[in-house]
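SAMPLE LOG
Freezer: B-3
Tube label: C17
Construct: single chain, 551 aa
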Amino acid sequence: MKLPSVRSVIALVLVLTLLLTGCSGGVDFPGYFGALAGYLGLTEGDPLVEEPWTATPFEDIEYVQPDMDAYQASLDACLEAAEGNSFSALIDAIWDFNDAYSDFYTAYAVSYIHYCADLTDETWEDAYNFCEANTSAVDAGLDELYHALAVCAYRDRLETEEYFGEDFFDDYEGDSVWDDTFLSLMEEQSALESQYYDLSTKALDVAYYSEEFFTGYGQEMAQLLVDLVAKRQEIAAYAGYDNYLDFAYDFLYYRDFTPEDADVLLRGIQDELIDLYRQVDDSDVWDLGYRSCSSAKTQAYVMNTAESIGGVVQEAYELMNDYGLCDIKYSPNKYDSSFEIFLSSYGEPFVFLNPTGRLGDQLTFAHEFGHFCNDYASGGSGAGIDVAEIFSQGMEYLSLCVGGANEDLERYKLADGLATTVEQAAYADFEHRIYRLEGDDLTLENVQAVYAQVCRDYGFGSWRDPRDFVLITHFFTSPVYVISYVVSNDAAFQLYQREKASEGQGLALYVDSLDTLESTFLAFIQETGLESPFTEGHMASVRESLESVLD
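STRUCTURE (predicted):
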């Protein structure tokens, strides 16, 4: 689904903030907010822009629990206006709904940031759970609105470049899948997903990666995944899909490649990269990752990268740093993960990281900062997840060229890039296999057996516990997402190859693409002139390039 490249009256949030995507005093960032205005098609003096956007420090952003009755009222007003005889009244109603939708997902994001910062804080856990429990209803409302607009008398005017764009409502003709049954199924899925966070909190009391963990909370998590797979298969069937993989690729992620395309890529990775992966896995390159690295050094690395690239990337870093739009402090109570999220009501991205105190933190922070830059440059990225991950992983690779990295960090990153390709391919393969288990075949024992086989197929070392799939958060909360890391890492590595071959070439392509409106992976690859990872023989060229450094 291509995002309208226009002053879409609700594109800022309604298409962009599926999560994972007031003024205050302070310095205005004309580059950023100019980009935001340009993205929406707004110009200085436009009557819809009452005052210039200014940044809000994160510490000044308060959580306001969403008023679901008010949200429903704004939706009802839109639906009524869609049947009325005033186009201007409809546009006003859509703007009001936009605000309500944006406020909901901003509250969701704020609660998620605070909850992840301290998993033991019950106040933030309750706030997050409230938002999580209402996401299906909110998205169902959006879907209902789109279906109403698809049949309203003003559809032709709404599908002009001034608003939603040509053919925007084609996918919303006919009956909506978001009926009461589908909504109930999605809410049941959300409740199961919340259980994973609850188990993760409880697991803080036992030693990480210990036998106590795997036979206790880990076993509960494993059964939870089985329950989630079953529920998601039920969701896909109700939505009219043959299987959940097709549902996820199409309905959730709007991918322009299929699970079968991905299967071919996964086989290519097994054929070309496993032997090199095993060699690297047994080498001393991973010792480099255990070198200590303070938070100050991690931040300095990303700052140097941003200053070296300059322009919009440097502006993004200054916004993030000056307005406290990142949390990279260590805490034992923090969620053991990293992410970037967009605060849509404020037009600001935010980076979250729980550092390990090791060298790899520099690359992890660079990764999330790449997402930040994409959101910054585009006013809230309209890129699909497969495209968005190119900017995060691309920042990691390109930081090696401009961030002051030494040969050790470069060697470590290329090893890490190889591991990313192989391990995320293994995780994607695992998901493909377990979502193809049906009926009586979908059991805890079979899911565990599938993962053990995947570990063997992809050359995982003997140190890996074949029960550690319960530690992969994406399986529980972002199903069928991890294939994005595989395809995007390939494209990001091509940026690095271009930069090494001709200084400035990879960086120029990266910066020029930050504000892309192309939402699907293969379309973006074609737009930028990169090579598709699905091309026959492509993985052999990747192996040769990696061997030239890692050998």
